[in-house]
Amino acid sequence: MKIFSDMSVYEAAKERLRFLFDEFEDIYVAVSGGKDSTVALYMTLEIAKERGRPIGIFFLDQEFEWQGTIDIMRKWAKLDGVTPYWLQCPLRMYNSNSALVPYVEIWDEKRHDKWMREKEPYSIQVPFSVNTRFHTTMNSFTDWRQEVTGKKTCLIGGLRAEESFNRYRAVTSGVTYKGLTWGRKNAKTYCFYPFYDWTFRDVWKYINDNGIEYNAVYDEMYKLGVPVNDMRISNLIHEYTTALLYLQEIEPRTYDRLTVVLPGISTRTKFEDDWIPKKLPDVFTSWKEYRDYLVETIVAPEYRDSFKKTWAKQADNEDVYRLHCIECIKSDVTHTVNADRTAILSSKIKRAERKKKNDNQGKAD
């Protein structure tokens, strides 16, 4: 694989994709309907056409999606040279909007009357894993596909290191394949992120320069003045989503349906500004005291021990305790809402503690 320090990120991504086409017989792209997967899809198609090869696209439909996402996915599924793998199988999703209903079983026939919409006629509707969670299902599907086809298979994703600390670590923490770090290994197959060093400006420049149709939700967000960092197309109940702040204005029909089928949505959108306290409530003397109060009063009893065990591994610091309070209020039973911020804070605090200890040891010597 060629490596040139003076390459643009566009040229570097093309070289990475060419390398993957040389190494793997079967390639498909994981798409979400967002800007990053738009780039991943169309750039992979560029190289696929250059090589005269077809590709697959993998979309794990989490039911609570923007209508704009469904619209663009239906168009992508019909692109020349593309075979769609649209999964609408049962999954257990975390609902960050309700302490009473922290999970929802999507596409479950038992709640058919409360589905957001009907399934696509050509979608895959059977689960690929006993553990019906998002990443487990995606990885299991990749491994299953390689077993069925007998071809060396890889998945291409649009993950970018700029977006979060955890994503940065995912593409810099170790060698995945033949000296490459920008990927990860499943049980039997690989997932690669050839656009990991792109910025959001690079993403939009590529889309604009090539006149590519993208998810219309972005335009509506722009009109509402949504900050660039909050312009994220994820499922509507994702742990990091900001979609509910704008959903009612952008897609009122989607919002109306969501409030009917899922508890906590209406309350969340009405009280978003007051939901997470910006300062410590007067009746508490510290964020730690407030945290300990919250975990005993609003977190469901069956999850309290899990919260406490997770916190015990993190730094002893008021800023970290404040993040724990947010986890309690959001009933973050998966401990992912503040994963990036907690990891960064804990790392900084531990480094400062080590430096202080070393300095004191030096003075003692």
Q: What best-fitting shape do the alpha-carbon axes yield?
A: globular
Uncertain segments are none
Distance linking N and C termini: 51 Å
What's the gyration radius in Å? Answer: 22 Å
Number of strands: 8
Q: What is the overall pLDDT average?
A: 85
Q: Output the structural class.
A: alpha/beta
| Assembly form of the protein | single chain
Can you summarize the main beta sheet?
A: 6 strands, mixed
Total number of helical segments?
Answer: 15
Order of strands in the sheet with most strands: 3-2-1-6-8-7
- What percentage of residues falls in helices of 4 or more residues? 40-55%
Strand composition percent: 5-15%
Q: What string gives the helices and strands in order?
A: HEHEHEEEHEHEEHHHHHHHHHH
Could you characterize the architecture of this molecule?
It contains 15 helices and eight strands. It has helices spanning 9-23, 35-51, 67-76, 134-149, 165-170, 200-209, 217-223, 247-250, 252-261, 265-270, 272-275, 287-297, 301-312, 318-329, 339-364; strands spanning 26-30, 55-60, 82-87, 91-94, 103-106, 153-156, 183-185, 190-192. Helix 1 crosses helix 2 (35-51) and helix 12 (287-297) packs parallel to helix 14 (318-329). The longest helix is centred in the C-terminal third of the chain and has 26 residues, at 339-364.
Short précis:
With 365 residues, the chain is an alpha/beta fold. The protein is built from 15 helices and eight strands. Helix 3 links the parallel strand 2 (55-60) and strand 3 (82-87).
Please describe the structure with a list of short key phrases separated by commas or semicolons.
single chain, 365 residues, alpha/beta, six-stranded mixed beta sheet, two-stranded antiparallel ribbon, 15 helices, 10% strand
